[in-house]
């Protein structure tokens, strides 16, 4: 309580006493005991009211013991019973949480995880994915700025998420308890199958398989690929203790149009403990058409080769590079890419207009903007002779096609001549331009639809740096190549946009995220944020029907169908206001990724323990771990002083006292004829 408040309280005592004396004793001829009692009641009433008005703050101190959290995390995925460790895991867990000395020293918090982290004291071991990275992220958020130990009961085999070894806070010790038999057994495994998503009818497409072996003997294995139960590829593989991995590369024929399901297997004459990881399914869509693209450039530039590689990452695309003066006959090409056009491209523009071919125009410091203004009326260029660096800004409201932001704002700048670019007509801007963090009024990547013709404009050179930056960020060119493929896909079709567009995969593995996304556009071809989308899913085998609403995101509607069983499904997405419909098909393959492992990942869990200054233990060593935690000096309980400040105005009983005093004074006066 501060000095001013104390002074006010003292003054309140004198003022309350003075008022009570003046009202009951000052003019009273007979200072009876009744007057003295009434004066005392009035004094207490005035004093209580003054105290309420001053509203002093009362401070109380108390002490409490704060124990260190002990986090116990159980792997709740199906890999634990598959490794026959679920019973042992429960016994170890009960031994931890029931230890009296441990409970006296720590506040024990129990969690389970599979795909994500959840508070739990019961475990069913039915999780379809293992994500230890989610454990690290969840614990950092929950126990921020705290020093605590973590016990994780797991086999260490992660099926989704980032590398968990470096995700955990190194300031907090992690003690992994390894579940499963660490002794190596004979096992053949298909680790990964790489195949293009698309292939062309009557062509051959490449398939790459990564296979591995666990054992201590030389062995011959046989790798096969089946389609419709018929063997279409067969290759022998040799393994030894010094050669435990192999890469198999095959060319498969695309003899049927549409989605084709293939099954890869590896086997030997020796019996294995785990056959689940000997098989992998993959799907290839065989296309009957191919997109031919003419890339025309009068100059040599890294962008040209980068565009060709990015476009041809989709095997249904074929890019041919020409100089403007040697190309003859554009009719056989679906799209023309003009890189930094100049007056030498006059005949190309004339032929494009005559044939009605869609185009992708890319400008830069070597572009003749005066010539470009003459050849099109969609953008107006007023450019100077100096160059400028333009950074990208992503437009989340862009709705010509669905595209995620792949980090455009962090990409290196594109170089173009300095000036202003004015859009005309039906122009949609995907990327706006920025100069030194300031947004300009000019686009950086724009699309124009003019009747049945489509044109894309990328207004800057050095986009090869974007592909390189995307690779550095994602360890893959895939995101950037998909971005370019979306542009090509838009230009490859002249058909008007459908009101309802739905994106989905044809095949999913059990445990995968099964997400179906949709976009609905109004008559002005604008994304309709008030649409009501519903999906009806039919299991073809059981005839069971499920209905869900699609939830609106930033530029699409989505539904997550995780948890539905393996099988073949038909579905219909309906916009309930307009009754617009889209029907499709998908299949969930009975593939349990959690059963791909024969042994726990002892090495990685040991690496995690060392990274956090903890230690790895086997279930039989649980008593040693508990003893270490109990004796650990850095985890002693801490006594904390808890200071609580309470405003007197919040004290309910003060109002009750004031009411009681005033009521008592009234009754005394009434009963004694003083009213």
TrEMBL record:
Keyword Transmembrane helix: yes
Sections of the chain in a coiled coil: none
Transmembrane segments: 6-24, 36-54, 651-668
Keywords: Membrane, Transmembrane, Transmembrane helix
Keyword NAD (UniProt): no
Protein name stated in the entry: VWA domain-containing protein
Annotated source species: Flavobacterium keumense
């Amino acid at each position: 309580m501060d000095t001013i408040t104390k002074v006010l309280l003292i003054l309140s005592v004198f003022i309350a006493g003075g008022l009570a004396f003046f009202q009951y004793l000052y003019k009273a001829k007979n200072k009876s005991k009744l007057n003295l009692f009434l004066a005392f009641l009035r004094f207490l009433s005035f004093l209580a009211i003054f105290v309420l008005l001053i509203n002093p703050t009362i401070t109380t101190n108390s002490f409490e013991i704060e124990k260190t959290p002990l986090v116990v995390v159980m792997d709740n995925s199906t890999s634990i019973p598959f490794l026959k460790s679920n019973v042992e895991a429960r016994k170890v867990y009960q031994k931890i949480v029931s230890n009296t000395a441990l409970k006296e020293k720590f506040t024990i918090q129990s969690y389970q995880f599979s795909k994500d982290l959840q508070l739990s004291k019961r475990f069913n071991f039915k999780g379809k994915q293992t994500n230890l990275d989610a454990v690290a992220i969840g614990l950092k958020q929950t126990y921020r700025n705290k020093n605590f130990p973590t016990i994780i009961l797991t086999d260490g085999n992660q099926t989704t998420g980032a590398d968990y070894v470096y995700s955990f806070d190194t300031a907090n010790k992690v003690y992994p308890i390894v579940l499963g038999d660490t002794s190596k057994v004979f096992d053949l495994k298909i680790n990964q199958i790489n195949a293009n998503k698309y292939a062309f009818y009557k062509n051959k497409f490449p398939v790459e398989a990564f296979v591995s072996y666990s054992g201590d003997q030389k062995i011959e294995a046989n790798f096969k690929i089946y389609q419709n139960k018929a063997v279409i590829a067969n290759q022998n593989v040799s393994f030894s203790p010094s050669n435990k991995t192999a890469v198999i590369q095959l060319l498969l024929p695309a003899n049927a149009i549409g989605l084709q399901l293939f099954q890869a297997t590896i086997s030997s004459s020796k019996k294995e403990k785990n056959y689940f990881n000997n098989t992998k399914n993959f799907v290839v869509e065989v296309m009957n058409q191919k997109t031919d693209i003419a890339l025309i450039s009068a100059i040599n530039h890294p962008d040209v080769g980068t565009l060709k590689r990015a476009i041809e990452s989709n095997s249904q695309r074929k890019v041919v590079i020409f100089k403007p003066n040697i190309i003859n006959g554009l009719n056989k090409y679906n799209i023309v890419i003009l890189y930094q056009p100049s007056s030498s491209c006059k005949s190309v523009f004339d032929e494009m207009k005559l044939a009605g071919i869609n185009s992708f125009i890319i400008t830069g410091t070597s572009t003749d903007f005066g010539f470009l203004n003459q050849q099109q009326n969609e953008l107006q260029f007023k450019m100077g002779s100096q160059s400028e660096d333009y950074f990208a800004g992503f437009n989340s409201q862009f709705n010509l096609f669905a595209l995620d932001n792949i980090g455009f704002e962090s990409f290196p700048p594109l170089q173009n001549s300095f000036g202003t670019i004015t859009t005309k007509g039906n122009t949609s801007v995907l990327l706006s331009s920025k100069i030194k963090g300031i947004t300009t009024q000019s686009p950086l990547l724009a699309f124009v639809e003019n009747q049945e013709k489509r044109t894309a404009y990328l207004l800057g050179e050095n986009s090869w740096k974007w592909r390189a930056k995307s690779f550095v960020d994602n360890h893959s060119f895939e995101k950037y190549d998909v971005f370019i493929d979306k542009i090509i896909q838009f230009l490859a079709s002249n058909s008007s946009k459908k009101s309802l567009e739905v994106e989905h995969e044809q095949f999913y593995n059990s445990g995968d995220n099964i997400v179906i996304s949709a976009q609905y556009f109004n008559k002005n071809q604008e994304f309709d944020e008030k649409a009501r989308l519903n999906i009806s899913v039919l299991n073809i085998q059981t005839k069971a029907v499920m209905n869900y609403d699609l939830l609106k995101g930033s530029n699409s509607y989505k539904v997550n169908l995780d948890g539905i069983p393996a099988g073949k499904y038909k579905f219909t997405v309906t916009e309930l206001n307009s009754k617009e419909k889209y029907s499709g098909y998908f299949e969930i393959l009975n593939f349990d990724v959690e059963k791909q492992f024969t042994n726990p990942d002892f090495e990685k869990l040991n690496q995690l323990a060392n990274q956090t200054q903890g230690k790895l233990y086997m279930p039989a060593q649980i008593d040693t771990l508990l003893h270490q935690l109990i004796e650990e000096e850095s985890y002693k309980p801490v006594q904390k002083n808890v200071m609580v400040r309470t405003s007197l105005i919040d004290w309910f009983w003060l109002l009750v006292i004031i009411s009681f005093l005033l009521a008592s004074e009234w009754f005394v006066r009434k009963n004694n004829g003083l009213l």
